């Protein structure tokens, strides 16, 4: 794989990743769940690290990211990321106390190999933040951009499958807060106007699988319903709902949970 071409998995981040860090900022409530799952680990590997969201600042973190565009967006407070893929981690066995991967496993070319590599280089917990494809239909966007939801559902592996490949894991639902600062799709469950923003959509890779015509049609339909009040008639209560039980899950594999 050519790690200088800006691509990662099935999405081209040289094209869609330019403003990623502006919209995909770590959500404190989610960060706290990840930190708890990492336990007392002092050394942490972040696989598919992107721009560095959710990397703990109080531990020694080694980041791996194949996209040059994403590596370039890492803030100066974080260490530079190593150009490598999940399927071929350049580390010895049991190199890290823990490892993590957030919103990335659906991009990997070989899920089984990537997870095996994470388990190989990790002494303690392996922590995966992902989405359950079976639950994506809970999000109202399915009424406007069904292809976005279908694309996501076809890309994300089932949490049970991830757990199986890790040799055993617990799966925790992660409620999404109303003001979620990490702009993945469901983060806007109560702020639909945000998805009229091209930058917000571009920070969600599933939108890149739509043609310009398909994306424009979806946005126009949402804008029309917001202006007419129809969206609020159907979903307005979400504007004040403190949490949304969507598809977000945390998958945690620890040595004492392995089969």
Automatic annotation (TrEMBL):
The keyword Secreted does not apply. It holds the Pfam family Methyltransf_11. Residues 45-123 form the Methyltransferase type domain. InterPro entries: Methyltransf_11 (IPR013216), SAM-dependent_MTases_sf (IPR029063). It comes from the Bacteria. One of its GO terms (molecular function) is S-adenosylmethionine-dependent methyltransferase activity. Keywords: Ubiquinone. This is Ubiquinone biosynthesis protein.
């Amino acid at each position: 794989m050519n790690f200088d071409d800006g691509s990662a998995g099935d999405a081209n981040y040289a094209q869609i990743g330019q403003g990623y860090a502006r919209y995909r900022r770590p959500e404190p409530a989610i960060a706290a769940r990840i930190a708890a799952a990492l336990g007392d680990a002092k050394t942490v590997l972040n696989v598919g690290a992107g721009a560095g969201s959710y990397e703990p600042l109080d531990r020694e973190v080694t980041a791996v990211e194949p996209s040059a565009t994403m590596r370039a967006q890492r803030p100066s407070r974080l260490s530079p990321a190593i150009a490598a893929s999940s399927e071929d981690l350049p580390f010895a066995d049991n190199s890290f106390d823990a490892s993590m991967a957030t919103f990335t496993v659906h991009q990997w070319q070989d899920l089984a190999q990537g997870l095996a590599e994470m388990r190989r280089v990790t002494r303690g917990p392996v922590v995966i933040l992902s989405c359950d494809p079976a639950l994506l239909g809970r999000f109202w966007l399915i009424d406007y951009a069904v292809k976005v939801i279908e694309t996501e559902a076809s890309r994300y592996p089932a949490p049970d499958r991830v757990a199986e490949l890790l040799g055993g894991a617990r799966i925790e639902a992660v409620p999404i807060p109303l003001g979620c600062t990490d702009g993945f799709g469901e983060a806007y469950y109560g702020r639909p106007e945000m998805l009229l923003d091209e930058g917000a959509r571009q920070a969600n890779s599933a939108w890149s699988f739509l043609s310009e015509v398909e994306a424009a049609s979806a946005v126009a339909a949402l804008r029309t319903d917001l202006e007419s009040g129809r969206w609020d008639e159907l979903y307005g209560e979400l504007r004040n709902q403190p949490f949304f039980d969507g598809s977000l899950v945390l998958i945690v594999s620890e040595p004492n949970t392995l089969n």
